[in-house]
């Protein structure tokens, strides 16, 4: 009896240790990784306190990020369920039974038991444990833990995407404000040119077609202004949506903010893709599929279940807890499936195909990663070159406008000509704002393509 009690206590102890180890492993603050995913140090490089403040609000309120966090918690509970399947199962059950015999019972020619009634009381603690000699249950748990690792990388990818998209929209809003201001000046200038052209037409110094052309240009500028205002409204709504803050009715006025120029490397080392979430997810998925193939193979092996009971069995309630009512049993039950209709073989083949699919997905992810990094780098370089070219064009237009002003001041030029020179300068200013914003947004896209890694830390290949 003492030996059996010792065995059951050992099973209980074995059930406690793994769960305690898992709890200790998960004791770290769950928000620590999420703060790292936010990568506020990178956004501080933009020297915009309001952007950093908004990033913290996104971290606190965004629904997509909260959903990603909940998926992590769900995955942790699934792992705990799998660990529980590795542990002994202990339960307490009771049974009260009333037996009524309506006729005599004969046992051989000379033994007779007449009809009777009796009560059976059974109150045992039952324990069972599948002796994982082949490591089947442990391999299942490892596979589920790999799935949890994949979900964690999905969360990191969500943080990178949400914050990068928010920053891009933030600077698009600044771009719209600046373009609207320039466009309003263009429209104001065009209205003055149209007024002067009408006076010139009424004096008989120009054909009506010139007035029509100026009216068409005025309508075009007006339409462009309306388009910019619509785009600004949509971007502002998108920012409020990502912030998910019910207290924010309107984004703060950021029209006076400048669009910064952030450093980006001229070359990206090829191993940078190894920090991308999708690359790590594909890699961990291969490992998970490999474990699943091992599980499918081990399903063909026999299982051994250790079971035991310790409790009381009596015919009267008053005798239930007496020493002579003690009940104990222990045993080992080997289990082996002889014929399953080919189910296990089909499952093994299915897992092997999944493993091959995971390999192909990994290869595709590698190529996609290289392509996205290269595309983002090319975009950043091209927009930076366009910005440089636009700045050079602005210098030329400034000279033309200065010449037009001097001609008008000296009486050798007309006011419409001077205003048209000013318009050309404004149009170049629009190109500069557009190129500067596109350059910065391309750098943000490059940041996203390298897996949320600080671009200042990336050293080009020498």
Explain what the structure shows.
It is a single chain. Helices cover 65% and strands 11% of the residues. It has one domain: Outer membrane efflux proteins (OEP) (Up-down Bundle), CATH 1.20.1600. It has helices at 2-25, 30-38, 40-44, 49-61, 63-86, 136-202, 208-243, 277-298, 343-409, 415-449, and strands at 89-92, 95-100, 105-106, 112-113, 117-131, 303-314, 326-335. The strands form 2 sheets. Strands 1, 2, 5, 6 and 7 form a 5-stranded antiparallel beta sheet that branches. The chain has a two-stranded antiparallel ribbon with strand order 3-4.
Radius of gyration: 38 Å
Using the 3D structure, state the CATH architecture: Up-down Bundle
Which superfamily, in CATH terms, is the homologous superfamily? Outer membrane efflux proteins (OEP)
- Shape from CA axes? elongated
Characterize the main sheet: 5 strands, antiparallel
Let me know the average pLDDT.
86
Structural class of the helices, strands and pairings? alpha+beta
The total tally of domains equals 1
Which CATH first-tier class would you pick?
Answer: Mainly Alpha
Residues in helix, %: 55-70%
Task: Return the CATH topology.
Answer: Outer membrane efflux proteins (OEP)
Q: Poorly predicted ranges (pLDDT <50, ≥5 residues)?
A: none
Strand content is: 5-15%
Secondary structure tally, helices: 10
Q: Topology as H/E string?
A: HHHHHEEEEEHHHEEHH
Task: Report, as a whole number of angstroms, the end-to-end distance.
Answer: 75 Å
Would you count the extended β strands for me?
A: 7
Assembly of the depicted chains:
single chain
């Amino acid at each position: 009896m003492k030996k059996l009690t010792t065995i059951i206590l050992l099973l209980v102890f074995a059930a406690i240790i793994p769960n305690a180890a898992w709890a200790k492993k998960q004791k770290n603050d769950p928000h620590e990784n999420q703060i790292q995913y936010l990568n506020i140090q990178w956004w501080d490089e933009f020297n915009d306190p309001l952007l950093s403040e908004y990033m913290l609000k996104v971290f606190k309120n965004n629904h997509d990020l909260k959903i990603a966090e909940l998926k992590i918690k769900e995955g942790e509970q699934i792992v705990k369920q799998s660990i529980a399947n590795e542990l002994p199962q202990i339960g307490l059950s009771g049974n009260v039974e009333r037996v009524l015999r309506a006729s005599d019972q004969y046992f051989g020619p000379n033994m007779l038991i007449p009809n009777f009634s009796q009560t059976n009381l059974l109150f045992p603690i039952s324990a069972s444990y599948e002796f994982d000699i082949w490591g089947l249950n442990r391999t299942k748990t490892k596979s589920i833990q790999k799935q949890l690792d994949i979900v964690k990388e999905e969360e990191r990818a969500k943080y990178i995407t949400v914050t990068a998209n928010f920053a891009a929209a933030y600077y698009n809003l600044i771009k719209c404000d600046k373009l609207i201001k320039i466009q309003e000046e263009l429209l104001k200038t065009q209205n003055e040119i149209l007024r002067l052209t009408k006076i010139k037409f009424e004096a008989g110094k120009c054909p009506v077609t010139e007035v029509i052309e100026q009216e068409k240009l005025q309508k075009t500028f007006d339409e462009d202004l309306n388009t910019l205002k619509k785009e600004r409204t949509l971007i502002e709504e998108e920012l409020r949506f990502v912030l998910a803050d019910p207290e924010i009715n309107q984004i703060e006025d950021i029209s006076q903010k400048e669009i910064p120029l952030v450093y980006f490397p001229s070359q990206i080392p090829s191993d940078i893709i190894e920090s991308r979430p999708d690359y790590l997810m594909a890699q961990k998925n291969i490992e998970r599929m490999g474990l699943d193939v091992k599980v499918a193979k081990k399903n063909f092996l026999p299982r051994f279940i250790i079971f035991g009971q310790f409790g009381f069995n009596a015919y009267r309630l008053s005798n239930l807890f007496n020493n002579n009512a003690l009940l104990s049993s222990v045993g080992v039950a080997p289990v082996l499936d002889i014929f399953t209709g080919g189910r296990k073989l089909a499952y093994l083949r299915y897992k092997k195909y999944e493993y091959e699919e995971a390999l192909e997905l990994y290869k595709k992810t590698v190529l996609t990663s290289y392509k996205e990094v290269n595309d983002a780098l090319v975009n950043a370089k091209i927009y930076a070159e366009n910005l440089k070219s636009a700045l050079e064009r602005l210098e030329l237009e400034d000279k033309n406008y200065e010449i037009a002003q001097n001609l008008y001041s000296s009486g050798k030029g007309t006011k419409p000509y001077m205003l048209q020179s000013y318009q050309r300068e404004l149009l170049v200013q629009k190109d500069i704002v557009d190129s500067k914003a596109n350059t910065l947004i391309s750098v943000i896209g490059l940041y996203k393509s390298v897996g949320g890694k600080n671009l200042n830390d990336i050293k080009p290949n020498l």
